[in-house]
Amino acid sequence: MPTLITPTVAVHRSFLVAWDEFGADSRWMGARSVVSGVPEWTREQLADPAAFSAMVAAIASEAVAGTALGPEMLPQTVLWYVDGSEWLGRLSIRHQLGPAFAEVAGHITYGVRPSYRRRGYATAMLRESLPVAAALGIDPARVTCLVDNVGSQKAIEAAGGVLQDEYEGKLRYWVATGRA
């Protein structure tokens, strides 16, 4: 059964296959760390298990207090959606919203591997992330999507998202995390 987990080297092979599926839209793979001084990885570099392991470590450090982050970057928890050793998608939870993210990006962003779309995984990922966001002190969470991304709109609304407005080509929602 698919679940959100912390990034792991156990999905190396399927991560690379997913990268190929995303093609030019590989930004969803998360190969650009928010950690200061960490370069953006290429698909070719990540074929090397040592480089992949370094990327996984850098991603984990993004959530650690005191990690030096790049300009305008914020701490975030990155989770991967996997089914066994199969990488299905990624989700990021920004611990707070700064000027660069408050208006158009939001707390939670996600992407599902192209060959696994239209199976309800975006909704499942978002729902599963809400307790994590709540534990980080986030409630409600801002989640956005492009105005023409009907699948993402449905996922956000199915997870309880309430539309705030449209802003610069994006729909901005608030989603309760259940924080007590």
TrEMBL record:
<dbReference type="Pfam" id="PF13302">
    <property type="entry name" value="Acetyltransf_3"/>
</dbReference>
<dbReference type="InterPro" id="IPR000182">
    <property type="entry name" value="GNAT_dom"/>
</dbReference>
<protein>
    <submittedName>
        <fullName>GNAT family N-acetyltransferase</fullName>
    </submittedName>
</protein>
<dbReference type="GO" id="GO:0016747">
    <property type="term" value="F:acyltransferase activity, transferring groups other than amino-acyl groups"/>
</dbReference>
<keyword id="KW-0808">Transferase</keyword>
<dbReference type="InterPro" id="IPR016181">
    <property type="entry name" value="Acyl_CoA_acyltransferase"/>
</dbReference>
<feature type="domain" description="N-acetyltransferase">
    <location>
        <begin position="79"/>
        <end position="160"/>
    </location>
</feature>
